[in-house]
Amino acid sequence: MDFLLAAMRNESGLPFPGFRYPFLAGLIALAVSWLLTPYVRSLAIRKGAIDDPKRDDRRIHKEPLPRWGGLAIYAGIVAALALILPFAFPHTAAYPMYLIGMVLIGGVLVVVGAMDDLYQFSAKIQALMLLGAGVGVQFIAGHIGQVQIKTIGIPLTSPPQHIALGWAAIPLTAIYIFIVTKTMDTIDGVDGLAAGIATISAATLTIIAVYGEQPRVAIVAAAIAGSALGFLKHNYNPAKIIMGTGGAYILGFMLACLSIVGALKTAAALAILIPVLAFGVPIFDAFFVITRRILSGQPITQADKRHLHHTLLGRGLSQRQTVWVLYVAAALLCGMLLIAVRLYG
Question: Looking at residue 294, what is its pLDDT?
């Protein structure tokens, strides 16, 4: 702790000054999530929040696993932001309204997800809740930032041109947040997959925000990355706990909101590419699954074994091999994004 306090007070306490506060935020979030997860695991077992592999044939694990890992992930993010932001912004608002909205609505989603782990809400109810969160977060805003896609950049125009969305910004933003959040949930089917992908995506947004001179976005993104990584210690195969619906919701929701506040405003020419590459694996997985369901005449909300991880497992890969194939794919896409931002941002 002395090291953390010294580093927060000393501008030269760590190399790469722009990464100083994000690094500390990530470290705190990692520690809190890592240390708290075993206690959350015990709580989930006591309350009966258990994922039973016998419930359907999509489950990969063989033994029942406690859920609710999202509680530890959320706690890690909140703890990091509470400790770091006052030091990083001593003379301005440490907690702007848009961030308060993200954290509060994210907390509601964690609770809703925890309830879903117990009572299994229908796909329609889950969709309405996520869309409601996507709409609500847009109206919690002040003079520093807002979670809303106000314009869409037109690629390959010089000088850069934008299309103002007007009132269409509200449903478009909500749909975007829904897509990113839900795809993070649907990809959570193999030990460590969603947590690892979220870590890679959040770390990428951290780097983009630092070089784009958006320090608050970088700190929040780093806190998400650290908390997901701390949870991954307990979630990597063989998993001792899974993040559950609440964990996938908080990671997807926070990342989607951050990409709007920060990364989507980096460059007009890259506005479309940034979410596609940063969240490439879960988005492609959703597109792949929905396309196959439509072609086979099945409802797009009907759960099945058509996801990328099911396909790789079906080809004989182990769970660890499967997640590493998808980790590498995510890292390559995010690497392409970083290069593009560096060249054209």
Answer: 78
